[in-house]
């Protein structure tokens, strides 16, 4: 059963997962970022992303109600798709794309893949998403963790500048 807790260090941070996962995440935030509450959102999100990747945090982290994403996990997932095709897309990558990259709901992952069945279609989506914008330009500046990931995805997919 998934639980939720507001961080003791910064009220803008909510942790989701098992009690054990939340306790570990809270302890790591306290240890590595005791002054995170003094950082603006952009800097705090990058610090939390780093924590997710270096400490392999299992709890989900939300900052002001928006998920913070692991760079390493999303990039691993996009490399798998780039190598093996769209059918190898993980639920985590689907969630990232549908929630952060300017995509309308496609009912589920299979529906999203049906709209973007090839790597070339995915590349084209990053050039011009469903709102008519380049994905990188569609991401708000405060979502620094997402912008960092999208920039790397563009390199991997060889999205033209």
What is the C-alpha radius of gyration, as a whole number of Å?
A: 16 Å
The overall pLDDT, averaged over residues, is 96
* Beta-strand segment tally: 4
N-to-C SSE series?
A: EEHHEEHHHHHH
Largest sheet: 4 strands, antiparallel
* Assembly annotation: single chain
Distance between the termini: 44 Å
- How many individual helices? 8
Fraction of residues in helix: 40-55%
How would you portray this structure in words?
- 53% of the residues lie in helices and 9% in strands.
- The chain has 161 residues and is an alpha+beta fold.
- It has 2 domains: 65 residues, no CATH class; 87 residues, no CATH class.
- A 4-stranded antiparallel beta sheet has the order 1-2-3-4, covered by helices on one side.
- A hairpin with a 6-residue loop joins strand 1 and strand 2.
- Helix 3 packs parallel to helix 8.
- The protein is globular, with a radius of gyration of 16 Å.
Summary of the model, kept short:
This protein has helices spanning 19-32, 41-54, 71-84, 91-100, 109-115, 119-127, 135-138, 144-157; strands at residues 3-6, 13-17, 60-63, 66-67. It has 8 helices and 4 strands; from the N terminus they run E-E-H-H-E-E-H-H-H-H-H-H.
Features:
161 residues, alpha+beta, 2 domains, 4-stranded antiparallel beta sheet, 8 helices, 4 strands, 53% helix, 9% strand
What is this structure's SSE topology?
Layout: E1 3-6, E2 13-17, H1 19-32, H2 41-54, E3 60-63, E4 66-67, H3 71-84, H4 91-100, H5 109-115, H6 119-127, H7 135-138, H8 144-157
Antiparallel strand pairs: 1-2, 2-3, 3-4
Helix pairs in contact: 3-8
